[in-house]
Specification:
Blueprint lengths: L19 E4 L1 H12 L4 H8 L3 H21 L2 E13 L6 E5 L19 E13 L1
Parallel strand pairs: 1-2
Antiparallel strand pairs: 2-3, 2-4
Helix pairs in contact: 1-3, 2-3
The structure holds zinc ion.
The site of zinc ion (ZN) has 8 residues, from loops.
Length: 131
C-alpha cells in the first residue's frame, strides 16, 4: 500500500526569460543522443568526436537552456553553421557542403551520382539561424 503523499514545497516564482533561447546544433545533438537515444556520455562523446568531459559540458549547457525555455516559456532557435561531409557511394569521392534541410539536390561533384549517405556532421562558427 502506498504511503500518504506528502505536500511538496515549491518556491514557484517562475521567471520569464526575455527573447530567444538559442541552441547550437551540437547542443541539440547532445540532447538527442543522451536524453532521447539514451546513450552513455562516453558513447555519445565518441559519436560526436569529442572527449567525454567536453560532451558533459555541452550537455549541461543544453539542459540548462532547455529548462529555461520550458520554465520561462521562451522561444527557441537553433543558430550556427553546420558542415555536412558526404561520401559518394558510386565513386568514393568525399566533399563538404553547408547544411541544408533537404539533401535531395545534393549530387556528387565528380560523377554526378545522387545516392549520397551523410558520413559526418560538423559545426563551424556561429553564422546562420533557423527557427
Ligand atoms: Zn561520385
Amino acid at each position: 500500500m502506498p504511503g500518504r503523499r506528502r505536500c511538496r514545497r515549491l518556491y514557484a516564482e517562475f521567471p520569464a526569460y526575455p527573447g530567444l533561447v538559442e541552441f547550437t546544433p551540437e547542443e541539440l545533438e547532445a540532447l538527442k543522443l543522451a536524453d532521447i537515444e539514451g546513450l552513455t556520455q562516453v558513447e555519445a562523446a565518441d559519436k560526436m568526436g569529442v572527449s567525454q568531459p567536453t560532451f558533459h559540458r555541452i550537455l549541461r549547457e543544453a539542459r540548462r537552456k532547455a529548462s529555461m525555455a520550458i520554465v520561462g516559456g521562451t522561444s527557441v532557435a537553433v543558430c550556427g553553421e553546420v558542415i555536412r561531409i558526404f561520401t559518394c557511394e558510386n565513386c568514393g569521392y568525399t566533399w563538404k557542403e553547408p547544411f541544408k534541410l533537404s539533401i535531395k539536390d545534393v549530387v556528387c561533384p565528380r560523377c554526378g551520382s545522387s545516392i549520397l549517405p551523410v558520413t559526418r556532421r560538423r559545426r563551424r562558427g556561429r553564422r546562420g539561424c533557423w527557427k
